[in-house]
Specification:
Number of domains: 3
Strand content: 25-35%
Mean pLDDT: 96
CATH architecture of the largest domain: 3-Layer(aba) Sandwich
Largest sheet: 7 strands, mixed
Bound molecules: 1-O-phosphono-alpha-D-glucopyranose, zinc ion
CATH topology of the largest domain: Alpha-D-Glucose-1,6-Bisphosphate, Chain A, domain 3
Strand order of the largest sheet: 2-6-5-3-4-9-8
Number of strands: 27
Amino acid sequence: MNIHSISTQPFTDQKPGTSGLRKQVPVFQQRHYLENFVQSIFDSLEGYQGQTLVLGGDGRYYNRQAIQIILKMAAANGFGRVLVGQGGIMSTPAVSCVIRKHQAFGGIILSASHNPGGPEGDFGIKYNISNGGPAPEKVTSAIYDRSKAIEGYKIIEAADRDLDKLGSSQLGTMTVEVIDSVADYAQLMESLFDFDRISELLSSGKFRACMDSMHAVTGPYTHAILQQRLRAPAGTVINGTPLEDFGGGHPDPNLVYARDLVEILYKENGPDFGAASDGDGDRNMILGRKFFVTPSDSLAVLAANAKLVPGYSAGLAGVARSMPTSQAVDRVAAQIGIDCYETPTGWKFFGNLLDAGKATLCGEESFGTSSNHVREKDGLWAVLFWLNILAVKQQSVEQIVKEFWQTYGRNYYSRHDYEGVETDPANTLMANLRSKMSDLKGQKFGEYEVEYSDDFSYTDPIDGSISQKQGIRIGFTDGSRIVYRLSGTGTKGATLRLYLESYEPDSANHDKDPQQALASLITIADEVAQIRTLTGRDKPTVIT
Ligand code: G1P
Ligand code: ZN
């Protein structure tokens, strides 16, 4: 085997964010940039000699080139086997599933999730550990530290692998196995959900669904599972072919970017159910006919109806949500009598709770939900969970959510994103809030009185690790909340996220437009943080 040791200089900007290292494609295309980061990953791990690595990506521009480089580096560094998805494709939840099923040492996922792709778009890389979940902070910090000191990397000289043909081949002493990207994942889904019942619903001719794969990674999964296995009519899946630039779109399943789907569901006589997933397949958006389910409500509805689904009929051990996610699921947990954990933003914080069996379902307001079946959020899983509930209850999406509000009350919720604002004023805004925080308690804004205000800090109940500065929370005496944080996944300037929530127990008041219901809080949020003045924007870029 022809192993080359290449000398390099460290890059100073390889700090992984909320979800791996994300940069614009030209940054990754710099000489040695990807290689340095991959070697930093390998150097931060111990005991992988001869072991299995799982490798796949969301099919975005540079995916295939990156896979060839990583295969050659994995061989040079002593991995025994790499399982790579056909065509280099594997969704984030599928990688998690494959790592667990094949007891791999870990996995590398190539994705910048919902960020646009293409030569001028974004690329990303993240490492997942043997439980199938994102590397915890101690691992990502070790990778970053290593990236700042690295002096070289190892790679073998060999021809590129054919990624499209299933089967095994040798790369030096390492085996490369090109695997079906869907099979293991589909089998796992079948073990959790009542496929017969869902299939009956989807093929009945009485119920119409539309699944928007947004030209991203889930195309092969939705075709195989929804249309082939579950017999949904052809045409149920739209935008189902993964493209390197996602067809020029922004593969983020929300009301703004999944416009095709929203238009279809809001037409007269539109389908009964709509869903979309993101670039790497871990996010989901759920729609009914002319009805949007907020991700926070979706999590709560899944928790409240889990007993109807075979994989969860024995009950939930507990639930967990990220701090800015609405408190709707807390009410379900209280009613069932299970624990509800509040974690910082980012899926990695759920890993320990899932491993320790303390939580069964987890979710984030950012269109992410999943369970202990993998260690990532899982878009298609959420879609199947909803379909299973719909098949059992034989009600519309809207009826199910409204019934839920009647039982538990409604948590009006919205997130306002100010994308790509200048970094300095964004930092000033957060710094101002921090310095103001301790004086806010007891202060009155119209009818609202501040009950507490802090910068969220989380102590992991399993390993005791502490994560500080996870977002400024202002809680009011009536249970309403305003949360501010800066995104950890953007690649241009800063993105300010403002999260707003208020609770309405009375079902007579459940039909308001959330922006109306939250109007006073929106004004207070601007007054306290001076958002418009500091960002120079008079409105958010995206409202969900
Ligand atoms: C965003 C979401 C967060 C999610 C992450 C990765 O992170 O807000 O919930 O886990 O993407 O998909 P942020 O950009 O806010 O740091
Ligand atoms: Zn994603």
